[in-house]
Amino acid sequence: MNETSTNNQANTPFIILISVIATIGGFLFGFDSGVINGTVDGLRSAFNINTAGFEVSSMLLGCAVGAFFAGTLADKYGRKAILIVAAVFFIVSAWGSGIATGSIEFVIYRVLGGLAVGAASVMCPAYISEVALARYRGKLSSVQQVAIITGLTAAFVSNYFLAKFAGSSLAVFWLGYETWRWMFWMELIPAVIFFVALLFIPESPRFLMASGQVDKAKTVLVKLYGAVEGTAKVSEIEASLAADHHKPRLADLIDKTTNRVRSIVWVGIGLAVLQQFVGINVVFYYGSVLWQAAGFSESDSLLINVVSGVVSIGACFITFLVVDKIGRKPLLWIGSLGMTVTLSLVAIAFYGAPLDEQGKLMLSTEMGTLALVAANLYVIFFNVSWGPVMWIMLGEMFPNQIRGSSLAVAGLAQWGANFLITFTFPYLLASSLGLPGAYGIYAFFSAFSIFFVLKLVKETKGKELEQMEG
Prior knowledge:
Elements: H1 12-34, H2 40-47, H3 53-77, H4 79-99, H5 103-131, H6 134-166, H7 179-185, H8 188-198, H9 205-210, H10 214-225, H11 227-240, E1 254-255, E2 260-261, H12 263-277, H13 280-285, H14 287-293, H15 298-326, H16 328-350, H17 365-384, H18 386-396, H19 403-430, H20 434-456
Antiparallel strand pairs: 1-2
Helix pairs in contact: 1-4, 1-5, 1-6, 1-8, 3-4, 3-5, 3-19, 4-5, 4-7, 4-8, 5-6, 5-18, 5-19, 6-7, 6-15, 6-18, 10-11, 12-18, 12-19, 12-20, 14-15, 15-16, 15-17, 16-17, 16-18, 16-20, 17-18, 19-20
């Protein structure tokens, strides 16, 4: 990492390298979110509980708190410092979740992991946006979603093979511990790598400028962009900050002219909430439970999760190729339209299906095929659009002065919505609405998101962060 910039051009390899290191946080975000998918039966058995609904969704409370405080504390201590703290929390949570002997102890460790996931969810895209050049910022930021889905898929693959080799998630495996515990411990490997790698990346130059460390900021900017552009960027960033040079704070979210929350903040909150209200994390958190409810075996359900993850990664690469060409806004509304159609088809496939003696849906071959195909097309549409683009937008759409605070509020809203959707799904599943009703609700919000994007979202493609308004 000692490679230096030339005088007149950006040090692109170095920018890519430190962005990739930041995206390991996204990988852990995905792994920590997805690993729970294969452990639900183990949690029910070990802790003598019925649904494990709160155990599954408890992490999301930590995520909401972590996202909020990461955004605000990052304005005080820096993006890098918060990511390092998150890495430590990932390590402790992975170990503790696997060793837990009771429900309360497990929830504590999962909430701790949630703090890490919440922090990584807002700080990783923010860091990437603040070090990358506008012409390829979208590409690098979209890698965050690739990392998230890769982490989810890695968790699904790990869960699948551990359960396959051991016989089931409940079977005793290595060193006398149940397989579901080892599913959590697999996360220790990437978590330690993330912690070590973070020690070698520079602090965000935008944070250094906002905190008054101009000389350090200039050093980083020159290393990133070259002497000419790096030096010029110092003045541009300074001009984008508050006229009285006060440090960023939550109060900056209030427009002094109207004494109301800035409209750009509400748009960010809307993007964050709608990304969850389309129901994507029901597929990721409860995929195994969902497909078993539809009549598939545990092994087949875990394998379907793996296939969905692989499909998601492929979809994210489409975004990587086109996001800096066609823009963020077109991808969002096209994705919304596709999700509306596919979610509706899934609801139709489940509607009216009879139940067996265990209460599982008995889908016909035609309806089972329709559900599988439509669900995977839905995952594709999400991961071409709202999956990566929402995080890209949140990382770049806010002016420098309010980026940390806006991310804090939007992150809190995003994870709060995530908790609401995840927590309510088991109850929807057990209610008269069932799977058809749940997917019908998610289809409604997908349809609403079309109009939200067309009416309120502004394009950010090709704009420098210093040009963002609001």
